[in-house]
Design goal:
about 180 residues; six-stranded mixed beta sheet; three-stranded antiparallel beta sheet; 3 helices; 9 strands; globular; binds inosinic acid; binds magnesium ion
Length: about 180
């Protein structure tokens, strides 16, 4: 039985089968692009943990995996733009691929990029499972996007609302 299937809270947008297919496509693209470079993935906790775990298992090239923690302050659904970043990474000269769950306003990624650029990586690209371009407040360029979605609040496949619903195997819109 599907988790929470009795609930009228969700509107499923992408099934686990659709997600798997798209993640595999992204992974093959990335494998191709980084064939001759040492890929160093930096996942953003917590939201990207499931996406990253699936993504790396479809790669056909080796990679390094690190994580950093980015917490934005604000109400539960609206990010304030103030982002706290925690990490102890040394990325000088590395080919970094940031793996994120959702790019919404882009403020979180903006802070992460600024923080990582200080270390002078050899290259820095962004892979995000979901992209909400309508909510954008920065000029972030996402290099690999899973799905482009409207400005709706999403949960599942690692993504939470107040720490709930990360365990859902599908991606759903959370109804009000
Ligand atoms: P941004 O800084 O506005 O781009 O937001 C980025 C972060 O806010 C993401 O990494 C998510 O953790 C969170 N976020 C943005 N949109 C959603 C959503 O629809 N559901 C759950 N979390 C979201
Ligand atoms: Mg996040």
């Amino acid at each position: 039985m599907k988790k929470y299937s009795d609930s009228s809270k969700f509107n499923e947008l992408f099934s686990s089968k659709e997600i798997k297919k798209r993640v595999q496509e992204l992974s093959l693209l990335i494998s191709d692009d980084y064939m001759n470079r040492e890929l160093h993935i930096v996942g953003i906790l917590k939201g990207a943990f499931i996406f990253l775990a699936d993504l790396v298992r479809f790669l056909t090239i080796p990679c390094y995996i690190d994580f950093l923690r980015a917490s934005s302050y604000g109400s539960q659904k609206i990010s304030s733009g103030q982002v706290e970043i925690q990490h102890n990474l040394n990325l000088k000269g590395r080919h970094i691929l940031i793996v994120e769950d959702i790019v919404d306003t882009g403020l979180t990624l903006n802070s992460v990029i600024n923080e990582l650029q200080i270390q002078h990586p050899a290259s820095l690209k962004i892979c995000s499972l979901l992209d909400k371009p309508l909510a954008r407040k920065t000029s972030i360029k996402v290099d690999y996007t899973g799905f482009t979605i409207p400005d709706k609040f999403i949960v599942g496949y690692g993504i939470d609302f107040s720490e709930h619903y990360r365990e859902l195997p599908y991606i759903a819109e959370l109804k009000d």
